Task: inverse folding
């Protein structure tokens, strides 16, 4: 299907970072392979633009990269004034895109996390650990919840599941606490960021058990909340920030995972030190991202030092928004 044809979802994950020059950042999704440009191509037809496209899934395979290359070729034909740059989550993706002739920079999705929303309990607060570990993930098979079967006192946080997925994980982890249904007294309830932050504050270790996906935002949210992490080896990008003494990367084996959880819970970590370590990794990559963006803006528009801080890019949302909200900066400039 064409990157600019077919039904549009009416919403998108993205934002206008600058109206003049026009710079956007958005997500590559199935209905919107070129993000905001697929949602509203007319917005990009008559003026030069620079558009950064992030990924929701690992693109380390040739087949997926070739699809991106075809979409970029169509974009060059349909929107001749627009320039597109892929945001690679991993060096492998970067190499694959470069081989296919797709413009790209290394910019892991996790640099866009809102660190203000995920913080440890305040200093001096009484922190009582209710759960040995927590896994924040959709109840899908690819998330490998079954690997947590050796973990005692496990908390699960998840998006609204399919009934079959909920039943399967219930069978796999009969002793786990299903937070969304527990708080909803047996009926699914969405957990907002504040409630999630409070729940994470009562957990010892954060789990990352999928072998392949995107960069997995939960992996950095755990650590910004001051929690150590147990992960299996994975593709998709989260491993870039899984460094330090408060991280264990182990085999996809329930015993290995349970052992790592016990080990980390037996070690005393300063939550603020865990957070600061993760924050330093993010800050380093944000600095490099900003340098790359400014060079590209200068190349495309001739504008020097267009962005002096990462702050404009911090508005890049996790959730999808309506076009009127996304394109408000363009409409305000036109008015």
Result:
């Amino acid at each position: 299907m064409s990157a600019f044809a077919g039904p549009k979802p009416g919403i998108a994950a993205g934002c206008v970072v600058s109206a003049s020059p026009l710079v956007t950042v958005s997500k590559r999704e199935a209905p919107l392979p070129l993000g905001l440009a697929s949602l509203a191509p007319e917005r990009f037809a008559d003026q030069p633009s620079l558009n950064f496209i992030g990924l929701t899934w690992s693109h380390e395979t040739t087949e997926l990269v070739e699809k991106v290359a075809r979409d970029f070729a169509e974009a060059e034909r349909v929107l001749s004034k627009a320039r597109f740059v892929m945001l690679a989550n991993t060096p492998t993706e970067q190499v694959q895109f470069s081989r296919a002739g797709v413009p790209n920079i290394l910019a892991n999705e996790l640099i866009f996390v809102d660190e203000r929303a995920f913080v440890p309990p305040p200093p001096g607060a009484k922190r009582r650990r209710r759960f040995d570990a927590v896994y924040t993930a959709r109840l899908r098979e690819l998330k490998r919840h079954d690997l947590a079967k050796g973990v005692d006192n496990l908390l699960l946080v998840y998006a609204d599941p399919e009934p079959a997925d909920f039943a399967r994980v219930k069978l796999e982890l009969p002793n786990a606490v299903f937070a969304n249904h527990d708080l909803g007294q047996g009926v699914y309830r969405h957990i907002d960021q504040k409630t999630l932050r409070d729940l994470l504050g009562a957990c010892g270790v954060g789990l990352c058990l999928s072998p392949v996906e995107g960069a997995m935002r939960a992996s950095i949210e755990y650590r910004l909340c001051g929690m150590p992490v147990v992960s299996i080896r994975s593709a998709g990008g989260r491993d870039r920030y899984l460094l330090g003494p408060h991280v264990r990367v182990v085999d996809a084996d329930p015993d290995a995972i349970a052992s790592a959880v016990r080990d980390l819970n037996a070690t005393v970590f300063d939550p603020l030190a865990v957070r600061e370590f993760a924050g330093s990794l993010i800050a380093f990559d944000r600095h490099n991202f900003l340098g790359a963006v400014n060079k590209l803006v200068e190349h495309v528009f001739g504008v020097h030092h267009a962005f002096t801080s990462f702050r404009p890019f911090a508005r890049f949302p996790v959730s999808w928004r309506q076009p009127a909200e996304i394109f408000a900066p363009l409409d305000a400039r036109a008015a």
